Amino acid sequence: MLDTFLVCGLGSLGKNCVTILKKFGVKVVVIEKNPPHNDDIKDLLPLIDLLIIGDCSDRNILLQSNIEECRAALIVTTSEKVNVATAIAIRQLNQKTRLVMRSAQKNLNNLLSEQLSNFIAYEPTQLPANAYALSALGEEILGFFIFEEEKIRITKVKIDQFHPWCNYESLDELNNRSRRILSHYPPSKSVSRTFNQWNPYTRILPQDTIICVETEDNFRLSSQNINQTIINQSFSRNLLNSINEVKNKCVTYVQDFSLLNSKQKIRGVVIFSSLITLILLITGTILFQNYHENASYLSSFYVTSILLLGGYSDLFDSFEPIDSVPEWLQFFSLLLTLTGTAFVGVLYALLTQALLSSQFQFTTKKPAIPTENHIVIIGFGRIGQQIAEQLKNLKQSVLAISLNSNIEVSQWLNFPLIVGKLQDILPSANLEKAKSIVIVTDDDIVNLEVALMAQNINSNLNIVIRTNGDDFSDNLTQLLPCASVISAYEVAAEAFTGAAFGENILQLYRFDQQTILVTEYQITTGDTLNNLLLSDVAYGYGVIPVFYRANGSYNFTSMPSDDTLLANGDRLIILATIESLKSIEQGKIKPKQWQIEITAAKSDMSIFEGTNVIARITGCPLKIARETIENTPQVLPFNVYRHQGVRLIKTLQQCQVYSKLHHNT
pLDDT for 51-83, tens place per residue? Predict the structure, then answer.
């Protein structure tokens, strides 16, 4: 008998939940008070096993849905009041049904979780905040999250001829205790839709692309090593580039001076005036000390300062010639006074202007609008604020723009924020030199308008757009093929669906038109993951284990060993697609299609150590492993996954046991 899942609400989120649930091969029951016209949901109706018209919070309606048989209920109407009432009603009718509710009330959600049990709540418009923020960074960082104070990054690395990874003999050598490869592809191919589909024997070549997940310490160390290698290999090239960069900056500074705003021009005047005054002060001090009898540097400094401040008459107030001071030095003193009057006067004027403009208010200074290499966020509601916070945590320069004049700006003074009409404020966002623009207003049409305007201003701008409908997302993708178009409800529905099967979706990311879910599993008896090696989980289901905690342990291990055997009570956090979660739920693990042929063992110690290695890496019983090594050449009677077999061969070779890998056709 198929598992039954109840979906309450057939809006944008509910429709996507129905579509994804049906991919799992389950029975779907839907309750909707005001169903759309049949023409609007004609493609969805064949996926719904039972459609009930009515209020999902009504006990009688819930009884019609056979709630006592439902494994989970996804409560996703647009009314939080209805959602809460429905969750309470379902729990009274069925104590075991998994409740996944749509709600933005964090405190209430925590309280309900304690009272209702087997309950989790998400806000669908905020769930994709990570996806939007990371898409704005471009192609290098695809994911970033912190768990148990351990920072993990998902990165895309494009290989060039100077990259140190070009020195590796095979792709498999990149895998270690701090890094796992998700995908690898040359320029002629696109990224794989499933993890671990790369060939471990592939040689890394320039123009290749590698997607990997790694700890922050490993990421920092790798970056330092890469930079040092490039410097060592091409010092002269870097030096030439540095010289050209300085030259270009000087030319650009001169060309752009006329384009600076008033504050920037005033800053330039202050620097220039201060520099001239300093030069005159040093020159005057040296001259007076050298050409005046018994003058010290300190007294010469004071004399020069007096002249710069307009004190010529205080030193030369007589009509009679002063024999002790040469005439040319007296003339220079007059020039000091005249020049000082001009430049020191400018500094006085600017200081006075600054004091008057501040109106003597000692409040927090509003951040200045960034001028280049920044990320612009259009729409500063709850999701926009989350995106801004995430980008700030990633040390990015952010400019927020709100089209809502009623926004509370006082609490967001740590972000430069512009409020007003789109046509008036967009030109001041410096889009010409911006890195990315993230458009996340609630209106799809406004988002489209902003995207087109931004593209006209800067055709190279990285554009990230939020949409609320799948059809509109498809149309936008065709209209703006270079933009990252992310449907909030489509992405959120994958998290809601994953949670409905009992998993805890911690975060999600989006790249190459697919969603990556950071999913936590609690291993139980009868679970499809129970008694499996992590290598079987990773290569059989196409996932990447990133954290593991054994039952009874207090600490998580990052990038756990493939040899770890899962048991009841263990906790595991993985990176997975919705297809991988479906495979785990249904227990559809990929078959092992590779064989290990043991060809020789050098000594009795090699046989002993090799036996333990085979048992540890493959899960093969010790007796069978030993009999295979003792009767070489012999094929191990247990198939393995390709990556598992490659690792086994390398480890056996270290024990002086020699073997080969064959595909079992």
Answer: 999 999 999 999 999 999 999 999 999 999 999
pLDDT tens digits, residue range 237-263? 455 556 666 555 555 554 544 444 455
The residue assigned the tokens 């701090």 is: 178
- Show the tokens assigned to 311: 């004190």
Helix (H) or strand (E) holding 571: strand 571-576
Token pair of 405 as six digits? 């004049």
Residue 629 has φ and ψ, to the nearest 5°, of -70, -35
Pairing of strands 544-549, 557-558: antiparallel
**Cα 549 to Cα 147: distance, rounded to the nearest angstrom:** 12
Q: What is the pLDDT of residues 552-568, one digit of tens each?
A: 888 888 899 999 999 99
Could you tell me the CA-to-CA distances from 451 to 82, 254, 257, 378, 384 in Å, in that order?
36, 32, 29, 10, 16
**pLDDT mean across residues, the chain:** 81
Helix axes 622-630, 604-618, angle to 10 degrees: 140
Least confident of 226-230, 394-398, 419-423: 226-230
User: Residue 592 and residue 588: Cα distance in Å, rounded?
Assistant: 12
Closest C-alpha to 134, from 499, 491, 458: 491
DSSP 292-351: STT--HHHHHHHHHHHHTT-HHHH---SS--TTS-HHHHHHHHHHHHHHHHHHHHHHHHH
Alpha-carbon distance of 190 to 187, in angstroms, equals 8
All residues at 6 or more sequence positions from 456 whose CB lies less than 8 Å from its CB, including other chains: none
Query: Which H, E and C letters describe 432-490, residue by residue?
Result: HHCCEEEECCCCHHHHHHHHHHHHHHCCCCEEEEEECCHHHHHHHHHHCCCCEEEEHHH
Q: What gap in Å lies between CA 201 and CA 169, rounded to an integer?
A: 8
Token pair for 635: 């094929």
Quick one: angle between helices 297-308 and 327-358, nearest 10?
60
User: 560-606: per-residue pLDDT in tens?
Assistant: 999 999 999 999 999 998 889 889 988 999 999 999 999 999 999 99
Question: What is the pairing mode between strands 462-467 and 436-439?
Answer: parallel
Summarize pLDDT for 612-635 with one digit per residue, the tens: 999 999 999 999 999 999 988 999
Tokens at residue 227, please? 């930079």
**β-strand partners of 378:** 401, 439
| CB count in 10 Å sphere of residue 3 | 17
Query: Residue 645 pLDDT > 60, yes or no?
Result: yes
Which pTM value belongs to this model?
0.68
Residues 6+ apart with CB under 8 A from 144: 130, 134, 151, 152, 153, 154, 394
Q: Coil, strand or helix: which one is 611?
A: helix
The residues, any chain, with a CB within 8 Å of residue 551's CB and separated by 6 or more, are 523, 567, 568, 569, 570
Query: How many angstroms separate the Cα of 141 from the Cα of each of 156, 219, 643?
Result: 6, 11, 26
Element (H, E) at 91: helix 80-93
Beta-bridge partner residues of 576? 517
> Of the candidates 564, 525, 528, which has an alpha carbon nearest to the alpha carbon of residue 546?
564
pLDDT at position 591, please?
A: 93
What is residue 621's DSSP assignment? Answer: -
Residues, the chain: 665
- Rounded to the nearest 5°, which phi and psi values hold at 511? -155, 150
Helix ranges, 101-234 (H):
106-116, 129-136, 216-233
